[in-house]
Amino acid sequence: MADTTDDRQKVADLIKDFRFAMFTTRHAEGKLVSRPLTVQETEFDGDLWFLVPKSSSPVAEIAAHHEACVSLSSNDSWVSLSGTAQLVDDRSKIEQLWNPMVDAWFPNGPDDPDVGVLKFTADSAEYWDTPGGKIATVFSLVKSKVTGERYDGGESGTVEL
Q1: 40-70 pLDDT, tens per residue?
Q2: Which residues of the chain have pLDDT under 70?
Q3: CA–CA distance from 140 to each of 55, 73, 148 (Å)?
Q4: In this structure, what is the dihedral angle of CA atoms 98, 102, 107, 112, given to the nearest 10 degrees?
Q5: The General stress protein FMN-binding split barrel domain covers which part of the protein (predicted)?
Q6: What residue numbers bound the domain in which 15 lies?
Q7: Element holding 38 (H helix, E strand)
Q8: Core-most of 7, 16, 60, 73, by most CB within 10 Å?
């Protein structure tokens, strides 16, 4: 299991390129449920911040079970974060994170009493990255097929945060 500063930086570098995440919680019946959320802060220091309705299902679910997972993906990389989540009562954080896109979900603005701040704190991460994108991936797949060697599609690791 990797656990170096370089690996932590690799995770942070990958996350800054993602805008949307799938946030997974445990439903009251025990099922895992994922929902898309917009990442509100691009500087990853172990925490991710989301603006959510306080009345939403994810907020109720994290009140009962703080454990959560956040996954982010693109055509050439993905990150899966495990950790805990909590609703934070911080009006100044709402103001800090507010942007014109959030108005679509909260037309009454940042003073809407239903606007909440969801803080996700990661304790571990797994990542996979294929530098070079699709062309490098196709090349590696063809090379694997021609040589009969196992596909080595990029860089991956597990990081304790």
Answers
A1: 987 899 999 999 999 999 999 999 999 999 9
A2: 1-3, 131-153
A3: 47, 20, 11
A4: -40
A5: 6-152
A6: 5-160
A7: strand 32-38
A8: 7
